[in-house]
Amino acid sequence: MSAFTPKNRLRDELKKIINSSMGRVHTDHLVEILRTHPKWHNELIDIYLSDEEPFSRKIVWAIDLYCDENSELILPYLERIVVLLPDFSHDALKRHSLHLLSRLPLPASGLGSLMNICFDWLLAPGHPAAVKVYCMEILFRISLQEPAMKKELADCIEFRLNEETPGFKNRGMKILKKISSGHSGEAWGGDL
Predict the structure, then answer these.
(1) Which of 73, 98, 111, 157 is geometrically suited to a Cys-Cys bond with 172, CB 3.0 to 4.6 A?
(2) How does the average pLDDT of the chain come out, rounded?
(3) 92, 137, 135: which is closest to 116 by C-alpha?
(4) Per 3-state DSSP, what percentage of the chain is helix, strand, and coil (rounded to 5)?
(5) Domain identity same for 48 and 87
């Protein structure tokens, strides 16, 4: 029998709230909880990172949305997300984690691991299009720091282009155009 602690009780209560419903309205409610109860942030992020179905899957969507307005919440956890990413059991955890990583500062530690994960998932036929799209975005951002990988990224996108969804094709073509034009949004030199 596990010892009862206030932390266990809080976690149990938060899991009940997380699991009380589903859908966008409920996710918006969870975002409001994140806004109004900052003292619960660490526990909610711990639930996300615990890969405990269905709680992790439900709270990560709210965390992803909340980070649009307050990315400071997740910044201290980015390296841990990279470490846990390959072991996440549900595509929603992978998708939202990659979405967070695609728009926040890339962690200095684990960048090689993140690059390998993204290339593997980009090339694997079984991953959902959204996972692959965020992998492309992350790889493009890494290529801004590591220009030598631009050609490999372009080759991988072109290899998968005819086998994928319209969403993949659309984003893939945009990234290929950025690569071929040398566009970065910031200073980025070099040709493919």
Answers:
(1) 157
(2) 91
(3) 135
(4) 75, 0, 25
(5) no
Across 6-35, b (16+ Cβ under 10 Å) vs e yields eeeeebeebbebbeeeeeeebbeebbebbe
| Rounded distance between C-alpha atoms, residue 2 and residue 5, angstroms | 9
Indicate the residue among 73, 96, 115 that finishes a domain.
73
Residue count (the chain): 192
- The tokens of 171 are what? 């984003």
Give me the number of domains the chain comprises.
Answer: 2
pTM of the entire structure?
0.89
d(CA 59, CA 126) in angstroms, rounded, equals 24
Q: End of a domain among 73, 92, 127?
A: 73
Q: Are residues 66 and 84 in the same domain?
A: no
- 104 CB-side CA count, 13 A: 25
Residue 51 covered by a domain:
yes
Let me know whether 181 and 86 are in one domain: yes
- Give me the domain span that covers residue 125: 78-185
| Count of other CB atoms within 10 angstroms of residue 67 | 20
Contacts of 63 (CB under 8 A, 6+ apart): 34, 44, 45, 48, 73, 74, 96, 100
Same-domain pairing of 85 and 152 = yes
Residue-wise pLDDT for 101-139, tens only, equals 999 999 988 999 999 999 999 999 889 999 999 999 999
- At 165-175, the pLDDT tens digits run 999 999 999 99
